[in-house]
Design a protein that fits this description.
Blueprint lengths: L2 E7 L6 E8 L4 H17 L6 E5 L6 H9 L2 E5 L12 H4 L2 H9 L3 H10 L11 H30 L1
Parallel strand pairs: 3-4
Antiparallel strand pairs: 1-2
Helix pairs in contact: 5-6
Length: 159
């Protein structure tokens, strides 16, 4: 079995807001993203907050974009115009927030890099989806603690 780790991160600080593992089957990324976005919408539970989602070209599918819009999430997904029309509306792609989301979405890779080098999950020595999921979530929690320490040091130096 092959497993795939998924994370949802905060663009402001680069903290992991949600993490989960699924079986790698070709559709896992978008399905996991919908589950995590739905959880984020429920947690926000505030009509005045607009939630945006920055993602790479792999998420540029009409079904996924429609699901985001149905949940009230603005899809700041990179447009995939390679031989086809992008599902992301041009109005969204032209916005200032879209450009910011595309720059900030790279923060999510830092969590995966830390998890593989420091967190020791490059090659998992566990069996079973549930155990791998627990290890992945615990590793991402440790990353958040490390990241928060770094953010605190940045604030102290700025004061």
């Amino acid at each position: 079995m092959r497993y795939m780790g998924h994370t949802l991160s905060d663009n402001r600080h680069g903290l992991i807001a949600n993490a989960m593992v699924s079986t790698a089957d070709g559709h896992a990324e978008r399905e996991a993203a919908k589950v995590m976005i739905h959880a984020a919408c429920e947690a926000a539970d505030n009509e005045t907050i607009s939630i945006t989602l920055g993602a790479d070209k792999g998420y540029d599918a009409k079904e996924f974009i429609d699901a985001c819009r149905d949940m009230g999430v603005i899809p700041h997904v990179a447009q995939n115009n390679s031989g086809r029309r992008s599902a992301v509306p041009d109005v969204i792609a032209a916005s200032e927030g879209y450009a910011l989301s595309q720059r900030k979405r790279k923060l999510i890779e830092q969590g995966f890099g830390w998890a593989k080098t420091v967190g020791g999950i490059r090659q998992v020595m566990l069996r079973g989806l549930e155990r791998v999921d627990h290890l992945f979530v615990l590793t991402m929690t440790a990353y958040n603690l490390t990241r928060m320490r770094s953010l605190g040091q940045i604030r102290l130096q700025a004061s």
